[in-house]
Every structure is written in C-alpha cells, then in structure tokens.
Amino acid sequence: MQEQPVKKIVMAVDDMPLNLAVIRNVLSGKYDVRPVKSAKVALEMLNTIKPDLVLLDIEMPEMSGIDFLVRMKSNPEHSAYKDIPVVFVTAHTTEDMITRIMSGGARDYIVKPFEPGTLLKKVGSLLDGKENSGG
C-alpha cells in the first residue's frame, strides 16, 4: 500500500467567502488549503499550524493583511514563521501599495480577479520551485 505524500499547507486569508472558495477550488488538488476569514484569526492559528505559504488579502476588518504580515514577520513568538512566503491576493495595485507590501516582506502579489493558472503558477513556483505546475 502506497502512502500519500503529505500536501504542503497553504493558509488563505480573506474576509470574502467567495474568494476563499475560489482559492480552495483552484489549489486543493495539489495543496492542503486552510481558509481563514480574518487576519486576526489567522495570526492566532499560527500557534497551531505552520503553513508553507500564506495567501493574504489586504483589506479586512479588525486587522489588515499588512498588519498581519508585520506581526508575523516581527513577533518573536512567531520567529519560526518569518521565512514563510506571503503572497498578497488583492485588488490594490497602486505603485505605493505594491511597494509597501513588497518592502514589508511579501514575496509576491496576485491581482484580483485572477486567472486560476496564475495562482497555480505563483504558488507552485514558491512551494515546488516550478514555474509551470502543469495546469
């Protein structure tokens, strides 16, 4: 009996259930997708889950994606998490915002609405080191 390989964990953080559903549908065949509806809850979940990658919206109630990123990267309690790649999935594409998220430690960003292939390609390149994940 052959063991199934362990899927890498992708934490998707967005306050819009539809966005989480789309991300889950696109990635769940290849990755273990953990949808989270708030950055505040996602930060608390870092105490129990170590994701291999975080997909993060910017604008959310209670705590923005940028605040989450800063806390994740700078909190001594989460020092094991500072190297986890963060990719923003956002409709904010001003030069200022892109500069802000990239200088804050994000690895990349995806513009909403996104093509499923774009999401697979960016996630695959960060998690599997592949530019083309075959889909």
Strand line-up across the major sheet: 2-1-3-4-5
Main beta sheet: 5 strands, parallel
Gross morphology is globular
Helix content: 25-40%
Order of helices and strands: EHEHEHEHEH
Number of DSSP helical runs:
5
Low-confidence runs: 131-135
The total tally of domains equals 1
Q: Strand content of the residues, in percent?
A: 15-25%
Please provide the count of β strands: 5
Distance between the termini: 28 Å
Question: Strand pairing plus helix content: what structural class?
Answer: alpha/beta
In CATH, what is the class?
A: Alpha Beta
What is the CATH superfamily label? Response regulator
Instruction: Average the pLDDT over all residues and give the rounded result.
Output: 90
Q: How is the CATH topology named? A: Rossmann fold
CATH architecture: 3-Layer(aba) Sandwich
Would you kindly provide a brief summary of this structure?
With 135 residues, the protein is of the alpha/beta class.
Describe this structure in words.
The chain has 135 residues and is of the alpha/beta class. The longest helix is centred in the C-terminal third of the chain and has 12 residues, at 116-127. The protein is globular. It has 5 helices and 5 strands; from the N terminus they run βαβαβαβαβα.
List the helices and strands and how they pair.
Elements: E1 9-13, H1 17-27, E2 32-36, H2 39-45, E3 53-56, H3 65-74, E4 86-90, H4 95-103, E5 108-111, H5 116-127
Parallel strand pairs: 1-2, 1-3, 3-4, 4-5
Helix pairs in contact: 1-5, 2-3
Which characteristics define this entry?
135 residues; 5 helices; 36% helix; 5-stranded parallel β-sheet
